[in-house]
Amino acid sequence: xxxxxxxxxxxDDVANGIGxxxxxxxxxxxxxCPECQNPQTWSKDGGIKFxxxxxxxxxxxxxxxxxxxxxxxxxxxxxxxxxxxxxxxxKFKTIFPQKAVWLYTGYxxxxxxxxxxxxxxxxxxxxxxRLCNVIVDGKFxxxxxxxxxxxxxxxxxxxxxxxxxxxxNQTVLWNDMNGGNT
Length: 182
What we know:
Helices cover about 25% and strands about 20% of the residues. The model has no long low-confidence stretch (mean pLDDT about 90). It has four helices and seven strands, in the order βββαβαβαββα. Strands 3-1-2-4-5-6-7 form a seven-stranded mixed sheet. α2 packs parallel to α3. The protein has one domain: TIM Barrel. It is α/β, with parallel strands linked by helices.
């Protein structure tokens, strides 16, 4: 039995990616950025116990709201709990392959996307990356806070086109304001 926990789900979101979608907030974050907007997600022991019915409810949202175009994983840090994150994204992309996955992480993209995995967790994170369309990377830095940035909180963060990055084996910034499902 798993001990997975999550912080919550926000439906009908338009702020954490292009188009309408849901945001799944993971529980647990090793970064603990000063002035974080979600400090209640830091503890891996906080939040709500994850069950299969939670995943079923999340998928049902996309059956019911067919024009919802993306799923966003935020946190916490989704990569701090790769088993749960992979399970959610894998099921979502299996059922809805045409819909986009956005993922927010405090880690730097180059540190996990292109390396040869040395551990089981690193291999799982690379599987997660391959299923994502867009990753917003970098810790929130209060001294670089910029409320004019779309989909980011501070200027050190980047919006990455994952599929183009993997094809070119280098980080490619995302600039598709028309859909995000590259």
